[in-house]
Design a protein that fits this description.
Layout: E1 13-15, E2 21-33, E3 36-44, H1 46-53, H2 55-60, E4 69-72, E5 76-77, E6 85-86
Antiparallel strand pairs: 1-2, 2-3, 3-4, 5-6
Length: 88
């Protein structure tokens, strides 16, 4: 298994199998597993960016945004960390 530094992934554009950009990685969710952390999912797109900024504040004033795209770790191909892609 290759190691990928998460700080290099945040902000990268994610493309689907056809090469279309679906959004940028805004957040990476991980869970502690012994001494390590294992990535569970990636949050992608503008809604993930708003979530990071505190979308709950926006909802308080009546803005109803979308939920961020949540991509399970196994669906993201990181063989080239500079160009993450969704697996088919």
């Amino acid at each position: 298994m290759a190691l990928v530094h998460v700080e290099l992934l945040v902000g990268r554009r994610v493309r689907d199998a056809n090469g279309k950009v679906i959004g940028r990685i805004e957040e990476i969710r991980a869970r502690r597993h012994g001494p390590d952390y294992l990535v569970e999912e990636y949050h992608v797109g503008p809604a993930a960016w708003l979530e990071k900024l505190g979308i709950s504040t926006a909802r308080m004033i009546g803005f109803r945004g979308r939920d961020p795209k949540r991509i399970p770790w196994q669906q993201l191909d990181l063989s080239d960390p500079e160009k993450p892609r969704l697996r088919e």
